[in-house]
Amino acid sequence: MSTHEITLTVDGSERTATVEPRTLLVHVLREHLDNTAPKVGCESGKCGACTVQLDGEPVKSCLVLGVQADGTSILTAAGLADGDLHPIQEAFREEHGLQCGYCTPGLVMSTLDLLEKHQELSREEIRAELKGNICRCTGYQNVVEAVETAAKTLDTERSD
Ligand code: FES
Ligand code: FES
Question: Are residues 106 and 133 in the same domain?
Answer without folding.
Answer: yes
